[in-house]
UniProtKB/TrEMBL annotation, chains A, B:
InterPro entries reported for this sequence: cNMP-bd_dom (IPR000595), cNMP-bd_dom_sf (IPR018490), HTH_CRP (IPR012318), RmlC-like_jellyroll (IPR014710), WH-like_DNA-bd_sf (IPR036388), WH_DNA-bd_sf (IPR036390)
One GO-annotated biological process of the protein: regulation of DNA-templated transcription
Keywords for this protein: DNA-binding, Transcription, Transcription regulation
UniProt cross-references to Gene3D superfamilies, sorted A to Z: Jelly Rolls (2.60.120.10), Winged helix-like DNA-binding domain superfamily/Winged helix DNA-binding domain (1.10.10.10)
Ranges for domain HTH crp-type: 149-223
One Pfam family per UniProt: HTH_Crp_2
Molecular function GO labels: DNA binding
Organism (species): Sphingomonas jinjuensis
Protein name: CRP-like cAMP-binding protein
Length: 239, 239
DNA sequence: CGTGCTATTGAACCAGGTCAAACATAGTGG
DNA sequence: CCACTATGTTTGACCTGGTTCAATAGCACG
């Protein structure tokens, strides 16, 4: 079938794949999205996409690369709150004169495009609303991880979450995905030190739970690992 | 002035005070709110106001008492994600067929009323939107606390947050407020054990930072304590 | 072929956890 | 009015998961 052949030749961009997984998008939605993506801009590593306390100019959609929401304490301690992957939205808000409640920094080279902040066709509106709900669910998961899981569990649980999220945007394999971050960044996301993260990763590798080489993370048996840490997939809508 | 006299005689309920602090409410907003509050219902301690994974029937507004969002791990470990105080809203969502992403449990006897989930006058709509943004800010603060603060700092920071929030709904004094929870609940909110919370509270009392007696918490010098832990007030709108 | 990250390893240390017992305090029922 | 129970707080002794500090090694890049 022609349609099929075309799809194979030109797969959807990850950001579109993700949004389409959250709500049904029709032609009008895809047009708006396509236009927005024309205005994509590159952001270099370590540059901020958004700064805590500053007015939010426009919501943005991550098209490629990894970013993160981050808080820095006065003495320099750093906590990553949430990773932002292709298809994730930043700076959405439903009220007037919003200011950013966290800084967003690029962890790799990132491309992102501004999103119209006014009215949008219903499919896209719904997708963005669902995206917001999913984000909240991941924030809650992060709290439970930091508050009540051991270092081993935190890392396993986060890897499963990333696998789930990258699967939703079509950029993960069945048991592996690219993870272009350092152990130090992972440590600052998990409330641990880089040294301890290193030791836990080695221990996880020895036990066959996780392998991380050349920027690629492999989870030999995602299902078994999920059972082991008591993880269930994140859902925000019925049906 | 008569108006003044009336206000003194019948101060606004905490929930209204809070919402009015988030957006300008006019007569139409107050009418809707007043009607909703007629349908207030009591919820007993330990009862759930909402269960993770179940469909959200209707958003609710907390009128009195304390509740919390909570996650329980498979082996029974418990993490409170966020405290819910009078004026807080639960179960708001912007998408269709939402399911609850966390359980909400009453920590004390609670009264709450259902909120219309359709269209509302603009002031109330804005207040609820701002409320959602504030909630998100507090979730982020909780992540930073659990991930990167010491036990002492976590407790001090949370107490300052509660003081800020209870001030916004008019139920806190300048340097104290009622805190009707146990040390074990506090521990499960801070990712600590009850034993350690107890020791930290005693140490905080000895150093004059916090006193907690007869269910009332006193912060002798909130301003100094905030400076000490590097805390700045939470803001989500400009102006 | 130095310079700057990132990853790895070892050894000593400590914040916070665990376990167990004692000590309130408030109902509650007899 | 007093035992009896239940829930919460406090204390002590000991233990461990994770940190700290420091040194080494790998690797990309100019």
């Amino acid at each position: 079938m022609l349609n099929h052949a075309i799809k194979q030749a030109a797969p959807l961009p990850p950001a579109v794949t993700r949004l389409a997984s959250l709500a049904t998008l029709d032609a009008a939605d895809l047009t708006i999205l396509g236009n927005a993506m024309q205005r994509a801009q590159a952001v270099r590593v370590r540059r901020d996409l958004m700064v805590e306390g500053r007015e939010i100019v426009q919501p943005q959609l991550i098209l490629s690369g990894w970013a993160a929401r981050v808080r820095i304490l006065l003495d320099g301690r750093r906590q990553f709150l949430h990773f932002l992957l292709p298809g994730d939205v930043i700076g959405m808000s439903r009220h007037s004169n919003p200011i950013a409640v966290s800084t967003v920094v690029a962890l790799t080279e990132v491309t992102a495009c501004p999103l119209p902040d006014g009215d949008m066709p219903p499919g896209l509106t719904e997708a963005l609303a669902v995206s917001g709900a999913v984000d909240e669910a991941y924030l809650l998961a992060q709290i439970a991880r930091l508050g009540r899981m051991s270092a081993r569990e935190r890392i396993a649980d986060l890897m499963l979450e990333l696998h789930e999220r990258l699967s939703a945007n079509g950029t993960a394999e069945e048991r592996s995905f690219d993870m272009p971050i350092t152990q130090e960044i992972l440590a600052d996301a998990m409330g641990l030190t880089a040294v301890h993260v290193n030791r836990m990763l080695q221990s996880a590798r020895r036990s066959g739970d996780l392998l991380w080489t050349n920027g690629r993370l492999t989870i030999p048996d995602p299902f078994a690992l999920a059972r082991q840490v008591g993880r269930t997939p994140t859902r925000v809508t019925k049906g």
